[in-house]
Amino acid sequence: MDQKPDSQHKLIEDLTGVNTSKLNYYAELKKRNEEISRQNVRLEILYRLSRAINLEMSVEDMIGETFKHLPQALRCELLGLAMLKNGELQIRTLLPFQSLLHQPVSRDSLLWTSFAEKTALLLPQLPAEDPFFAANPALAEKLRSLVAIPLLQRSVAKGLLLVGSSQVGAYTQDNLDFLQHLGDQLVISIQNAQLYDDVSRARKNWESTFNAVPDPILLIDTDHQVLLRNNRPLPKILHVQPADQAGGKCYFLLYGRLVPCPDCPMDMMRQSPEPVYRRLETETQRVLDFAFYPVLGEYGELVAMTKTVKDVTEKSQMENRLLHSARLAAIGEMAAGVAHELNSPLTAIIGTAQLLRCEWVDRAELAESLEEVANCGLRCKRIIKNLLTFSRQDQVPMTETDLNREIERAMALVHYLIDKSHIRIIKSLCADLPEVKANGLQIQQVVTNLMINARDALDKNEGEKTIRLETFLKRNRDGLWAVVAVHDNGQGIEKENLSKIFTPFFTSKEATKGTGLGLSLSFGIAQAHGGTLEVESIPGEGSVFFLSLPVKDCSVPRVVNPG
């Protein structure tokens, strides 16, 4: 009795189609849920691919990563790219059919048509007569359906995305929409990777050029921070140089300062954005040229500056030597004429003074004056003799000479003077020193001059007085040199005098002790031999003079200065 109304109610719902509508509704709902689920899977796959594909991946790696994830959204037994190259569509990558790489796509193929017309191609079943599949029977044998998606970059076709299945009719229009999104994502990824590769290549080229510059270059911001620098070591400006580390303030890195330099070029460039050039002589006796160039922003404001540092010590020394040579040449020409003009009257003055002294030997006051006249005349004669020698340096004969032997002879000449001053002599002569082409007498003259100068530099020393002579071989980019070095632990030479000591008539000695021609004469002798005479000195600690002469025999062992 109670079930009768229910039966009637059900009969009414069947007759009116209510139950049918419910079934259709639930079926549609299920279908929509499945569709939403598929869309979510596809979106998840696109998201994973966007995360998995990075800028450093190659195109082949990108397709490989896509091939791992794509089967989760649709059937995929083949995935590849055909790209346009030199006007021809070629297979760039095709998984798992890697044997077809670089295979061209015929212009008569449906694939080419899809590419040329920029329209997606859906093949539920592969056409056996298509030129591309006919040319690749292994591919046609394993595949039954295929989709080709044009890859467009700014509306220009660059290639095709190929997706294939072994099942007939594996793909629908709905799949085409998803694959089109996938193709767009790949195009963006490939384009970004190409841009990244171009930028990386340009950066590497720029860095290679930047690092190839032989001098240090620094990019410094307006806060004095070093933003960038090439791989060249910074020159040693201070005796105790701060650690060479990346970044940091330029004034600390170069000069060990805690605050900006008082005359910083950055301040000048803020007022006028013009290059600034400076030369600095460092504590370490190096000469550096600095060049500062402004880096301007979009509106002409100063945003940074570049700083280049060039060590011009050798260039500066060469310029000084050239200037010195020019001066010496001029003095040499003058000396020859002056010496001859003065020799005759001096001979008469000296002879007359000596005759009068002999005649007036009983008149002590006159004899003393005449002795002074004769001595001054003789001193003038010695100066003239040096001037004549100075002007004839290129005329002296040269033979193969043993430097060690000439040093021993020079020491024998000045040994008494050195011993009288209580000076200790240390010899360190290289036993294997090869012979050089030189004039032995002039080499003795140079060594004698250097030893006498060393003795005079030790006059005011209260402690131990030492002169050390050594010979050694030195090799540099100009060849092999035999070097004679004379060290002393005397007073040293003041920094401002170092550039003057080889100048004729310059002397820091008392008038009775020197004429100022000894070092200039020695310098000229060194040059006449094709060599150099150089000095290093620290005031209060001593000096060392280096006479370097070229060695012609390049077969001698590669020996360098032991010190």
Describe the protein in words.
This protein is α+β, with helices and mostly antiparallel strands and 563 residues long. It folds into 4 domains: 39-199, Beta-Lactamase; 217-311, 2-Layer Sandwich (Beta-Lactamase), CATH 3.30.450.20; 313-391, Helix Hairpins, CATH 1.10.287; 396-563, Histidine kinase-like ATPase, C-terminal domain (Heat Shock Protein 90, 2-Layer Sandwich). The protein is 45% helix and 21% strand. The strands form 4 sheets. It has a 5-stranded antiparallel beta sheet, with helices on both faces. A 5-stranded antiparallel beta sheet has the order 7-6-10-9-8, with helices on both faces. It has a 5-stranded mixed beta sheet with strand order 12-14-15-17-16. The chain is rod-shaped. The model is unreliable at 558-563 (pLDDT under 50).
